[in-house]
Structure prediction request, 317 residues.
Amino acid sequence: MAFGLKKRGPSTFARAADGSMTLIEHIRELRNRLFRASLAIMVGFGVGIWLATPVRVLLSKPYCDLPQSIDPLTDKCKFVQLGVADVFLLNLKIGLWVGLVIAAPIWLYQLWAFIAPGLHRHERRYAYIFTALAAPLFAAGAVLAFFVTTKGLEFLLNVSGDDIATNLEVTRYISFVTNLILLFGVAFEFPLIVLMLNFVGLASAKRLLSWWRVAIFVFFAFSAVVTPTPDPFGMTALAICLSALYFGAVGVAFLNDRRRGRGREVYAGIADDEVSPLDLSDEPVRTGARIEASAPVAAPEPVAAPAPIERRYDDMT
Prediction:
């Protein structure tokens, strides 16, 4: 398909003289990268379907460990299914999430292989560092979310009392747990934003440290909003962890500023609205050494007078 082009010149699909890729070549490479990433996700989805039931049992553990979840007749943990195909669709959803996690090294590599040629060497180095830190931080947030879910459910189910039977709907419960894991995992990526501001030179470590009061307030407000349980335990745990990560990121920012020599500039310590001092002290002026002529200057030669111009009789006409 020509995309509206009436004529394809010889340079439309050919590489430029400097080796750069044309627009059509970029689109073709993007198509190939997306195909490989989609193929990896499909393979991971197949494995995720096989692991869907064990993962669902693992996500149900915070609720099934509570005595309120045990059925007195069967002595087992049971959920309620409102629709005929709810569990089947839930297994497909869990299998997709598991497939994305399993195939993450492949589709992340395809994404990186498409973006990396347009980055500088130092930008690639920063991308490697941030990617290596992002995965452990997200995993730490997921573990904290799992712990908060256990304590939150225990608090909520104890509030209902012994005279009320509790039966949770399976799809809503799994969505509750997965959303909490996703929120906590994304929240733990906030220190990377702080480091990015420092590494690109937008905020120094001293300025980041001066924002600690605002940062702690924002952390507690954010935790109160995103934590679905009304108990103060989950909110406080998330806010304290985010505050600790923030101060850790500020410490790394101090090391980065010291390595780059920031803070030792001429204008360091001067506020943005403060006039920099000027050195107005007088400097002594000394007399320069006398220059002696090395040879006498010759007098200019006389210029001869021009010869008279002879005029002819026809010049007067």
Q: What stands out?
A: The first helix runs from residue 23 to 50. The CA atoms of residues 45 and 96 lie 5 Å apart. The radius of gyration is 37 Å. DSSP finds eleven helices and no strands in the chain.
